[in-house]
Task: structure prediction
Amino acid sequence: MIRVVIADDEPLIRAGIRMILTSAADIEVVAEAANGREAVELARAHGPDVVLLDIQMPVMDGLTALGELGRAAPEVRALILTTFGEKENVLRALSGGGAGFLLKDSAPGELIGAVRAAAAGDAYLSPAATRHVVDQIASGRTAGRDEQARRRVAELSERERGVLALLGEGLSNADAGRRLHMSEATVKTYVSRILAKLECENRVQAALLARDAGL
Result:
């Protein structure tokens, strides 16, 4: 079972998310939080696989809670779920170690798929969030950042760079394996090694680095 904590300050929203998630046989909602502080405390207490975080909440907002989760429960995967799709929120969530970004107008099946992807160690970006990230990369890249990314990527082997390039395209382990004629398990091993070498917290950070490096 994938164990989930839902954090949103609106009870009706939490109820709706719970109903969607528990319709999947492999997902269990273990706790609900009304603010970011509660989300961190419940994650520490219950040890869930995934925490769904709204951005705008009282006491502690979702992006601040994301940073706290990274320190208090680094093994927990955090998905940002919000009505706000501004570029800065997407990028702050991903650079802060979030496992993905999902808008509240997403289809129920997309929500379930995002939770499954996060629990499996993959990253998930809603189509709207992906467009924001791509736009920001295109408009905000600098020569200094690109050069730093190229230096970091140069430490990888040729095969590792190939896998990283596919992460930059947003491919899953299975899709990358098919492209490279490798098993999904082998790709997963490469991804873990790449994240360790690049000191990236998740696949999304590695993907952004790949784009900066021009892979």
